[in-house]
Amino acid sequence: MSRAIYPGSFDPVTKGHLDIIIRASKIMDHLTVAVLDNPRKVATYNIDDRLEMLRMVTKHYSNVEVGYFKGLLIEYAQQKNVNIIIKGLRAMSDFEFEFQMALVNQKLNADIETLFMMTNSKYSYISSSIVKEIAAFGGKISNMVPPEVHEMILAKYNE
Ligand code: PNS
Predict the structure, then answer these.
(1) Total tally of structural domains belonging to the chain
(2) Which among 73, 86, 98, 108 is the best mutation to test ligand 1's pocket, defined by most ligand atoms within 8 Å of the CB?
(3) What residue owns the CA closest to ligand 1's atom 13?
(4) What is the CATH classification number for the domain harbouring 60?
(5) Which of 29, 68, 95, 124 is deepest in the core (most CB within 10 A)?
(6) CA 158 to CA 136: how far, in whole Å?
(7) What is the span of the domain harbouring residue 96?
(8) Is the pTM of this model over 0.90?
(9) Closest Cα to atom 4, ligand 1: which residue?
(10) Predicted confidence (pLDDT) per residue in 136-154, tens digit
């Protein structure tokens, strides 16, 4: 049985992330989308909001679960009995850091493989940071984030 984990900050989840989630859920028996709760990094959305966004956008995918972790990804993967880490790649600029993380995780546990999925070209320009930058200046983000997330983002900037 293939059990995979798709980790990230998801601050917020974008259409690019959701595209990877849907494609990975089709090739894996079970997929955990895991949010890193990182006390060393200030997030725009707290962990509960990020989990809620992910639960809303994945509710129709029965083999997808949403969770969060603190500390090392590889330890969470072991705890979830997962043998595959899914990562999305958008451009060469993502590659260097992702390559390093994959090698570190391989050193920590050689039984857990990192698999890279190429972004859908429609979403290659999207990142959570770009979404927040545009939203902060009142720009249109509806084509970058799922509709449910769009509403939560607008609510935040209208506070
Ligand atoms: O969405 P992001 O911010 O690019 O996700 C990065 C993430 C959460 C996948 C990465 O920072 C991570 O796995 N952090 C957990 C800490 C860890 O395991 N570090 C060792 C590998 S370098």
Answers:
(1) 1
(2) 73
(3) 73
(4) 3.40.50.620
(5) 68
(6) 10
(7) 3-157
(8) yes
(9) 8
(10) 899 999 999 999 999 999 8
